[in-house]
Amino acid sequence: MNPTELDLLVLGSGVAGLSAAVRAAETHKMRVGVLTKGELPQATTRWAQGGVAAVLHGDPDSTDLHLADTLAAGAGLCDVEAVRVLVDEGPHRVEELIAMGAIFDRDMHGKLELAREGGHTLPRIVHAGGSATGAEVERALVEAVQATMAVIHEHAFALELIVESQRCRGVTALFADGTVHEVRATNVLLTTGGAGQMYSVTTNPFEATGDGIAMALRAGVAVTDIEFIQFHPTALSVETMPRPLLTEALRGHGALLRDSTGERFVDEMAPRDVVSRAEIRRMVELGDNHVYLDATGLDGFNERFPNIAKELRELGLDPGKDLLPVAPAAHYTCGGIVTDLRGASSLPGLWAAGEVSCSGVHGANRLASNSLLEGMVFGPKAVEAIEDGVSGPEASGAMRSVLGVDGDGPDRGAGGVIGGMMTHLEPVEPADIDLSAQRTPDAVGDSRSHLQHTMTMNAGVLRDRDSLEAATKVVDKELALAVGNSVADCEMRNLATVARATVAAALKREESRGAHTREDFTETREELARRIVFI
After folding, report:
1. Euclidean distance between CA atoms 166 and 153, whole angstroms
2. N or C end of the chain, less CB within 10 A?
């Protein structure tokens, strides 16, 4: 190894990346670097409100029940083995985080308080500050990373993967001073999050532009389940963006959803895809652009949810008196870079964990509060595999769909997956424009807004062939124009790249399943209980 080369380069600074980085540096004494396009604490993790789903010691719950709830939400596309790893190893990772200094909410007797969210049969969500769990998890991890990393590159934008002799050897990156450099490593772990900014209405921060997934698609790395974009049903319907999120725990504590006539219209504790569809259909029926969350009957709102209470006060809303306007917003990318159960991608030397990846845990729809848990479990597992000398993927988790290994009989009935449907994206030729005259920031911003509006209207909660074909034309046009070299141009190119895969997969999946709803194919089809894999 070149003496300046890292053992491990982690891209992204969310829970998956930082958990892995700390373990690699502290436990395995690797030379580790972290590269992030913002600052360390700016990852999507800090926006996570609800908490971490885990069956901790002494709970009147079981990991089998947590597994069953996850499989039910995943609508037949979860990998059972992946979910078993998640629910079995998750509690230990939560305990490690507590030992690292994370402070979760406890009752007067010192026992962890547990919340219930949609799709969960029992309360099993540990939380911090009522609705500030992500920020607390991020704080604890950032402090540990700052004390242990060999290199930290902030405000550095990863452009492309370096692939040599069919192995990933690092990335090229655009630094804050405008220069482009190679950052080389024996192993690269992508933890760059999802692509919520494909949509004009999202709970994701401005930085969630699908960078890791887009780099993987351009490098021919296998990507799957990208059509399953989860919409959160209770984003506050106000003009600010990202949309403020009203945590699912509010409904777990008894808040109700009502339409503009005051009527309830859905089981508030159903999985997110069910609630989001019900909201959109009721909004269309009544000609409204939102419904309402009624939290007026909740006791101790300010004490339980201080951050949300503060945000509502700033917007002139009183949850004790006012119905809160809410509407679905793009929230989570269920698919991503295909990995095995140790985080290996189809490209040796390239690993992925967290929202950027698809291990098979989430299937067609993520169960609430499994996202932070996934990052905490699978990020460190990639480090352990690297330490064990693993260099390529094995036939486990979602990777079975890539390697041609079908799910076995017993697993099929519990949510296993039959193989995969391999496909590819035809390249879009860059537009014939003058590169010496780069597009203005306003022009790039207009392109981004156009793409987001198109995806929201045509490839959102409800879709059909006509809408998806209309989206394809716009996405292809915007991708052809995204040829500049500024960060804004690169983000736009990445958004368009992921949007193109999302629409293509949504067209190919002629059924409704989980977070993917086709108005022209309303039923779930057994023969489509398989992954659509771009490779």
Report:
1. 26
2. N
Contact call for residues 510 and 516 (beta carbons, < 8 A):
no
Q: What is the pLDDT of residues 160-202, one digit of tens each?
A: 999 999 999 999 999 999 999 999 999 999 999 999 999 999 9
Residue 404 within any structural domain of the chain:
no
Amino acid at 209: T
DSSP class of residue 513 equals B
41: which DSSP letter? G
Range of the domain at 264: 235-327
Q: Which residue type is seen at 250?
A: L
Selected catalytic residue, list 46, 169, 243, 272: 272
Pairing of strands 114-115, 125-126: antiparallel
| Closest by Cα among 385, 397, 391, 380 to 337 | 397
Q: What is the CATH number of the domain that holds 242?
A: 3.90.700.10
Q: What is the pLDDT of residue 1?
A: 42
Number of domains making up the chain: 1
Strands 167-174 and 336-338: unpaired
Asked whether residue 250 is domain-assigned, the answer is: yes
Cis peptide before 242 (omega within 30 of 0): yes
How far apart (Å, rounded) are the C-alpha atoms in residues 295 and 416? 38
pTM of this structure: 0.91
Token pair for residue 188? Answer: 């690269």
Structure tokens at 118: 């949609």
Q: Is residue 111 part of a domain?
A: no
Angle at 59 between CA 57 and CA 60, to 5 degrees: 140
Q: How far apart are CA 488 and CA 151, in angstroms?
A: 25
Residue 283 has pLDDT above 50, yes or no: yes
366 is catalytic: no
User: 466: buried, middle or exposed (CB in 10 Å: 19+, 13-18, 0-12)?
Assistant: exposed
pLDDT of residue 304: 84
Residue 39 · residue 154 · CB < 8 Å:
yes
Would you say residue 476 lies in a domain?
no
Nearest to 405 by CA among 421, 415, 423, 418: 418
Using only the alpha carbons of the chain, give its radius of gyration.
Answer: 22
d(C-alpha 212, C-alpha 54), whole Å: 27
